[in-house]
Amino acid sequence: MSMKRTNVYADPEDLAIIKEAAKRRGISEAEIIRQGIHLAAMANRVWDEPLFSRTFEGSGRTPTKDEVRDAVADAVRREGGSGNAA
Asked: DSSP string covering 3-68, please?
């Protein structure tokens, strides 16, 4: 992946925390900063698709805690109840 260089101003206390974290984790300070930039980019991204693009049949109301528990228990029974993930 190609990178582009940029300059930013940062709080000295934040930079000290990043320096400590980089040393503790055995990675570069730059890698921690890149991860932070990526998280900021994803948090501010405008997605092309809506979060929920499918519709589901149902009553249109939020199920109760007991209804959810019963639905999960029924699904586990239908799948054999082995408890193992596929």
From this structure: ---------HHHHHHHHHHHHHHTS-HHHHHHHHHHHHHHHTPPPSS-S------S-SSPPPHHHH
